[in-house]
Every structure is written in structure tokens, then in C-alpha cells.
Design a protein that fits this description.
mainly alpha, Growth Hormone, Chain: A
Length: about 450
């Protein structure tokens, strides 16, 4: 057991390199290598968890599972993922991101390899819930790596580029599922194939990642880039609990952003995860065509998040609240248009609004859950803050809201009721983002 636990211990500092040219060369090399490993690795996580969403209509039809049963499976995943995010976020700040991320992806991939053979609702819910906990090992190590390898003024742009990995992974999962449903005689391949790919990606992550710059002999990022950290831990606050208490649990701005993210997650998963059911059951679009339509959401989400980060860096000195609010206003209008016009008689309008929702929901998710949180907490608690916000986002925003809540809304009030709540959540998120406006402004002026 001690040998196993040793794999997760942070890498110790390596002898410090003094040659400026060598430091510059190696910093460039390790930043590129780290970024690629984080990007490809997180695509692997999404490949082994978002493969179920585009196949939901086939999955439920083949196994005879109803709307509420699907909500139970989805909610189980969201609850374990949310709890796991909080737990893993606290651990990741004091762990080796290399082992943490790679082993979690490997275990998630193994679950996918046998998940297709399950038939009972409760075994489906249990093992998809177990997959949720394994998936929680993905984001906290990423949050830690990004704040240690990229300085505060770089984060909006770099984080938004990295965050396109979740939409790239979702798009890859959707495209793969569409091809497998069309050409593979066994629909269960939608779990088997991503499982195999996930194992390969986990091996790549373990080979490629390293912990922090000082673990490879490089200076800290704030020193190297001459870009002071917006929040610095005081010397007297040496214990992990003191850091967590001050910079996460009792930090009002972490709470504001976590609540904003809850609402954004309801919109994101309410529109994304139920899209195939809505378009197939309520609007009568072909079962293979709805998967390609579903794919437009993550496809356009990629540039949506990247452009949001670029605009925050270019026009607001790295501050994210202004562009986030603009995105949320437009998102509200797009959700309404999607519900009104989606259908086989307005296929181009359906495409337009699905793509627009993907574009405008991705920016707020990226900026609130990543960059803004990193600017209102300390570097030493970045992963914990990400885990904390992820916990509430997946428990309230996704499990209670977008999974079970959305299913019950559709059952009792129809699809119109569900999409009306999505619009209300987008407006509510604006309020909580606005409450952190001054704090983020103060951080950008240091």
C-alpha cells in the first residue's frame, strides 16, 4: 500500500537550472508538452463519459428504459462525479498530477469495456456512478497544472484553449457514436471502442505529464514571467486546512462563482444531454441525424470558449466577468429560438440554434469554472476551488437539475417547461457573475 500511495505523492523539487537560455528553452518545451497532455488526456475523459449521451435514444430503446430511469442513471453519475470532484480537488493540490490523472482515466476506461454488457437498471446506475467518481480525477489535476505552468495574465487565453478539450472530446464521442451506430451491428460498441481508446490515452498521459515547473528544475511561473499572483497565501497559513478554510470554504467569491456555474451547468447539460431525446421523440428527426445535430453543440462550443478567452485577454486585461455576461444574454435568446424552431421542417434553423447554444454556453463555463475561480483564490488552493465548484455544479446543477429535474420537468410540463427553466438559469447566472465583478477587477490591477 505504501508503494501505491507513493505514486500519488508530489514530485520533489529538482536541482534549479541557472542558465537563462536553457531555462527559456525547457520552459517552452515543458509548457507545450504539459498542455498537450492535459488537452489529449481530458479528451480521453470525455470520450469515456459522453459516449452515452448521443446514444441515449438507442440505449433506452434497446434496454426498455424510460425517461425517469435515464434521469436516475445520469443523476447517479453526476452525484458521484460532484462528490469526487470535491474530494479529488482537495487531494490534487497535494498530489502528483501525473499519476492522479492517468490512473483515473485508466479505471474509467475499464468500466466502459464491460458497461455495454449490463442490463439491470441498478447495475447500470451503480457502475455509471462509479465511472463518475473515476472521471472526477480529471479536472482538479488540470486546474493545478494550469495555474503552476501559466501566469495569471495568460490564464484567460490559455485556459480557454485548453477548455476546448471538453468540447473536442464531446464532439469526438458524438462522431464516433454516430459512425458506430451506422456501421457496427452491435450498439454496445459505443462503450467498448471508447474504453479501448481511453486506456491508450491514459498511458500517454502517464508518460508525458510532470508535476510543476520546480519538479523539473525550473523557476516558479510568477517569477519566470514576472507576473505576480493575484492572491498569495500568507506565511502564517501553513496548514492545508487553513488554506482551504480561508481561500475556498469561506471565500464568498468562490461561492458566487460556484452558484453561477451551477446554473450554467443546468443549461449546458439540460440542452446537450437531452437533445437527442427532444429532437427524436418530440420533433421526429431521424435517429442517426439527431446524433449529428447533437454534435454541432460541442463542435461550435470549441471556438466559443476560445474566443471568449481571447476577448477577455484582448479587451479586459484578463478579466472575464464582462464577456461572460454578454455571452449569457445571447445564450438566453438562443435557447428560446431553439425550442421554437427546432424540427425537420426547419432543419437549418435547428442547426443554427444548436450551434449557437454550444458556442455561447461554452464561454461562461470555461471562464467561470476555470479562469475566474483561479483569480479569486490562491495558487495553492486552485484544484480545491475547482473541486468545490464542481461539487455544487454536478450535485445541484446537473444531478438535481439537468438530470432528474429536467426529466421531471418534461414529464409534468413538457419540453417547453424544461427550456423555460434553462432561460431562467442563464439569467440567474448573470446575477452571480456580476457579484464577483469588483473582486476580479481588483485582482487584474495588481
Amino acid at each position: 500500500m505504501s508503494k501505491i500511495l507513493a505514486w500519488f505523492k508530489p514530485m520533489p523539487p529538482a536541482p534549479r537550472l541557472e542558465n537563462p537560455e536553457e531555462v527559456k528553452k525547457l520552459y517552452k518545451y515543458w509548457r507545450i508538452r504539459t498542455f498537450l497532455a492535459l488537452y489529449i488526456g481530458y479528451c480521453g475523459f470525455y470520450l469515456t463519459r459522453k459516449n452515452i449521451s448521443p446514444a441515449l435514444h438507442v440505449f433506452s430503446e434497446e434496454l426498455g428504459i424510460g425517461m425517469v430511469d435515464l434521469g436516475i442513471i445520469a443523476a447517479t453519475f453526476s452525484i458521484t462525479y460532484g462528490v469526487g470532484k470535491l474530494f479529488c480537488g482537495i487531494l490534487a493540490d497535494k498530489a502528483n498530477v501525473r499519476s492522479f490523472m492517468a490512473i483515473g482515466l485508466f479505471l474509467s476506461s475499464v468500466i466502459n469495456l464491460f458497461y455495454g454488457s449490463l442490463t439491470s437498471l441498478w447495475t447500470l446506475a451503480f457502475f455509471w456512478g462509479l465511472n463518475g467518481f473515476c472521471q472526477a480525477t480529471g479536472y482538479p489535476p488540470v486546474a493545478k497544472s494550469l495555474v503552476y505552468w501559466f501566469s495569471p495574465k495568460e490564464r484567460a487565453e490559455k485556459w480557454s484553449w485548453w477548455s476546448s478539450s471538453h468540447t473536442a472530446g464531446t464532439f469526438a464521442a458524438g462522431a464516433l457514436v454516430a459512425l458506430l451506430l451506422k456501421y457496427c451491428p452491435d450498439w454496445r460498441a459505443v462503450f467498448y471502442v471508447p474504453g479501448i481508446l481511453g486506456v491508450l490515452v491514459s498511458l500517454y498521459v502517464f508518460w508525458s505529464l510532470r508535476d510543476t515547473p520546480v519538479s523539473v528544475g525550473l523557476p516558479p511561473i510568477d517569477e519566470y514571467r514576472n507576473d505576480p499572483l493575484p492572491v498569495v497565501v500568507e506565511k502564517k497559513e501553513v496548514s492545508q486546512w487553513q488554506i482551504l478554510k480561508k481561500y475556498v470554504f469561506t471565500n464568498p467569491y468562490v461561492w458566487y462563482l460556484s452558484l453561477a456555474l451551477c446554473l450554467v451547468y443546468f443549461v449546458r447539460f439540460g440542452t446537450l444531454d437531452w437533445a437527442t431525446k427532444f429532437l427524436y421523440d418530440a420533433r421526429g428527426i431521424d435517429k442517426v441525424q439527431v446524433v449529428w445535430l447533437w454534435n454541432l453543440m460541442p463542435l461550435f462550443g470549441m471556438p466559443g470558449g476560445i474566443i471568449a478567452g481571447y476577448l477577455a485577454t484582448k479587451f479586459f486585461n484578463g478579466r472575464c466577468a464582462p464577456i461572460t455576461i454578454i455571452y449569457l444574454i445571447v445564450l438566453s435568446a438562443c435557447i428560446y429560438g431553439y425550442y421554437v424552431f427546432a424540427g425537420p421542417n426547419h432543419i437549418w434553423m435547428t442547426c443554427l440554434f444548436i450551434a449557437a447554444i454550444g458556442f455561447f454556453v461554452d464561454g461562461p463555463q470555461v471562464l467561470i469554472g476555470g479562469v475566474m475561480l483561479s483569480r479569486v483564490t490562491a495558487q495553492e488552493s486552485a484544484a480545491a476551488a475547482a473541486g468545490f465548484s464542481g461539487f455544487w455544479s454536478y450535485i445541484l446543477g446537473t444531478a438535481v437539475g439537468a438530470n432528474l429535474g429536467a426529466a421531471l420537468l418534461v414529464e409534468h410540463y413538457g419540453w417547453g417547461g424544461m427550456y423555460a427553466v434553462c432561460v431562467a438559469c442563464a439569467i440567474g447566472a448573470i446575477v452571480f457573475v456580476a457579484m464577483s465583478w469588483k473582486k476580479e477587477t481588483a485582482g487584474s490591477e495588481k
